[in-house]
Amino acid sequence: MGAQAAFCAPNVRFFQHPMREIAGYHTCQGYCLQNGAYELPNGVNFTISSMGATSVSLLLFYRRAQKPYAVLPFPEEYRVGNVYSMIVFGLDIGEFEYAYSIDGPNDPARGMLFDPKNIILDPYARAVAGQSKWGTKAIPGSYRGRIVSSYFNWENVQSPHIPMQDLVIYEMHVRGFSKHESSGVANPGTFDGIIEKIAYLKDLGVNAVELMPIFEFDEMRDMRVHDGKLLLDYWGYNPVCFFAPNTAYSADHELTHEGDELRRLVRALHKNGMEIILDVVFNHTAEGNQDGPIFSLKGVDNSIYYLLAPDGTYYNFSGCGNTVNCNHPIVHQMIVACLRYWVIEYRIDGFRFDLASILGRNEDGTPMHNPPLLESLAVDPILSKVKLIAEAWDAGGLYQVGSFPSRSNRWAEWNGKYRDDVRCFLKGDGGMATQLTYRMLGSPDLYQPDERGECASVNFITCHDGFTLHDLFSYNAKHNEANGWKNTDGDNNNNSWNCGEEGETKNQDVNNLRRRLQKNAVTVLMCSRGTPMFLAGDEFGNSQFGNNNAYCQDNEISWLNWDDLEKNQDLYHFFRYMIHFRKKHPILRRHTRPAKSRFPETSLHAMTPWDANYQYDSRVIGVTFAGRNMEDTADDIVHIVMNSHWEGHQVCLPDLPNGQDWYIAVNTFNGPDSDCVEEVEDMQCVRSGILWIQPRSVVILVAQ
Questions:
Q1: What is the pLDDT of residues 622-640, one digit of tens each?
Q2: Which domains does the chain have, with CATH numbers?
Q3: pLDDT category of residue 10 using cuts at 50, 70 and 90
Q4: Does the active-site annotation cover 539?
Q5: Which is it for strands 662-667 and 697-703: parallel, antiparallel or unpaired?
Q6: CA gap 55, 428 in Å, rounded
Q7: How many Å apart are CA 578 and CA 596, to the nearest integer?
Q8: Is 391 a catalytic residue?
Q9: Is 528 exposed, middle or buried (0-12, 13-18, 19+ CB in 10 A)?
Q10: Nearest 5°: phi and psi at 438?
Q11: Beta strands 208-211 and 169-172: pairing type?
């Protein structure tokens, strides 16, 4: 199904007849129910709505021209309510770009910013002209829509529809993933560059790729130079248009076929059994506050699309200048339509909502008990199969981890408490034993299983925002001097530990400890109930040199250096092993059939079995998962022992039924040749039931 075919109204009369001539073009009333602009066999339909406008004109530009070659005012008879809709005949979609001029009251104190001199981008544009080449400054007024006519061949490839608890999510930045010359791809920094690395991802074992923002954004918005380096808004959390993919991420110029390269990526991932999740930003836009530009929503209906204070200034719950008024009915409708579009036209499998608590704020900024938008997304029939993941906090102080509104158990959450508690335990903080067991068991203190199910917690220790896994155990403090803010930006509460020396070192003992802690981290992550997620490059020791807020670093700080993969093969192989170990043992991921032995599904232990009376100084923990897979008659019993103490300890293992013994599958204290063992016959047997666990290490045992 093509992009436009999917979004034509079902009763479209394809061969409308001209009713009147405007600016030399034959026109007729358009189809008001379909927002945006789309191609018809005999013309192009343009529809835009504005509650406050008194008149609207369509502007047609030749490609890259600064002034329109045609201005077509919408006649009053082409207006239905607040909707302006017109079909223009005889247009070649490859020859023009379009925008709007919107007139109305100009009273900033009341939030009215209408000015017919402003060139206004269609909020529903499927492609945006003006900034297709990365790092090129858009000239004022150059944001204009393009018509997309893409009839893409999906080759009957379907989404794998992987259950949430079976996902292993790999978070990446499209450009940073392959931009470094060491990536070896033909099209670095693009969607095609990811396609070239799919074999790598498949071998690693991840089955979901989460892309940082790919909506059209302005990387040049806060362009500046610091210490001779050009700094950009590299991450992309400043959307220009919600419906358009960032054309700078395409290797080829896709005139009238914008988005096809992204579709090829989705098709290739699905063909290889992987899903794709988009990090979407509906909480703010690149228009900023009262000092920012007016190029889209501000010029359409500023007082509707943004949360405004009584004096007309902008509430800033996003920390980025403005806040989208998500629960206003018109904005609500736009967001639902947008997500439907990405699911229908790009076959996206899920969405991670940046600063999602903003999506639950009322029009006065207060949190709502049952936000209409969140409820609509949860029950929408087109979105019924996609994953909905909330970053359950915002920059206005609203923190909802464990309490994010979740109708029908449809919403999962980035579990920030998982990140914090696991980090604290791994570096040896006291009083963290009980918290760690909660996190490994799926955070039942946050997500009641009978209320939120097994799929509410997305577990992560690292993400784009903060230290990489390598840096987490290499730096006590952030080192963001390269950002130009005198190291004042970024979070100060990292729960990190440098293992005795700050930054890179030649001290082999320190480096060995750091490597062990990284392996401890992925072991805990892959042995926790919930959905694991980790940051691209963590699997081979990628570093950002202590920068925990690399949002502006379009350079070697943020780009993955693939030479590290060769240098840190043992870490990569350990990550790969743990991902496959998780897949091999469903009991780690979900409820299975009860074990035939006396073992409960989950149980907690300390240095003696069945003892979960943890004290402040408890740093040795045992967690056991037991059950039977649907196709198996034998029990599947996995026991994880974690020691965050700087001393070794003797641990008594739980007794197994007659005829079974404990075998060591993983011991992170061992060297790379024996820290993980594939075959049971090669594993060390612990028949005595006594285990010596070395300092700061994790051991996994399986019953055989």
A1: 999 999 987 777 899 999 9
A2: 3-145 (2.60.40.10), 592-703 (2.60.40.1180)
A3: very low
A4: no
A5: antiparallel
A6: 65
A7: 26
A8: yes
A9: buried
A10: -55, -45
A11: parallel
